[in-house]
């Protein structure tokens, strides 16, 4: 019996050949179509392997149904570094492995976080909308003056792989970098990127830019809320490429409306794909649709890595990026 593999969204092409070589592949080939939870629970049971995306909620109920079907589900390979869409504890209880795609998207994600920082500081989308609307009547001394990026202070919340690469980019812009993390980084890493460890409140009150790089978990839910936004400078800009619910989005709207902070660059949203409607009409906010890892090369690597975890399991090896025991 060849293993049965389900791929829940259309993914970069190379990954399919890896999967076709080892199993029977059923795949959603409609680009941009995300299966509803009902559709997923109708289709997933009876597969050995699931290659899924962060848009799929893999909860205890679905895992239970997949564990009692025949064949039984063996591995959920998430094509993402974050796996908060999967109930990993329930998977572990059902002896279902879970894997992610760490490392390969870190630079690409830091690139976009820095792009959002620059775009928000220098008001690029707003200036571009102005030009396209035919309003550019000549160079102006006051036209679209924004915040200075080089030489400013960046606060990095979550100094894992992506946070550290954000610091590396910031050091090229002569920025002072503060970081807050569950633990202090080794001295050689602090030295390499000129990182200074500090408390959350200290970081928030001193930074011109605050960039979030923590995974989402109950401990990071609304890590940035009303209290934290109130600590930030009125000139400060918040950048979020981590997960939407790390920020209390309604509190963020209020802080932006009242001028408590100056702007925000957001790649992720609390109730994605929904966005707080007030944000859509604010000029000082740059909004992109969860594309931090979206370079052609990185997405191809992510799909291949997710597929390789399935291939390893089929071949009787431990999936290299398994996140549970
Ligand atoms: C994207 O958000 C990811 O977790 O890979
Ligand atoms: C601006 O274009 C300048 O020359 O200062």
Automatic annotation (TrEMBL):
D-isomer specific 2-hydroxyacid dehydrogenase catalytic domain span: 5-324
* Pfam families named in the record: 2-Hacid_dh (PF00389), 2-Hacid_dh_C (PF02826)
Record-linked InterPro entries: D-isomer_2-hydroxyacid_DH, D-isomer_2_OHA_DH_cat_dom, D-isomer_DH_CS, D-isomer_DH_CS1, D-isomer_DH_NAD-bd, NAD(P)-bd_dom_sf
Which positions, given as ranges, span the membrane?
none
Q: Does the keyword Hydrolase apply?
A: no
Q: Which GO terms describe its cellular component?
A: cytosol
Q: What is its EC number?
A: 1.1.1.26
Q: Name one GO molecular function term.
A: NAD binding
Q: Which intervals hold domain D-isomer specific 2-hydroxyacid dehydrogenase NAD-binding?
A: 114-292
Q: Which UniProt keywords apply?
A: NAD, Oxidoreductase
**Which family does the similarity line name?**
Belongs to the D-isomer specific 2-hydroxyacid dehydrogenase family.
Name under which the protein is recorded: D-isomer specific 2-hydroxyacid dehydrogenase NAD-binding
The organism is Ktedonobacter racemifer DSM 44963
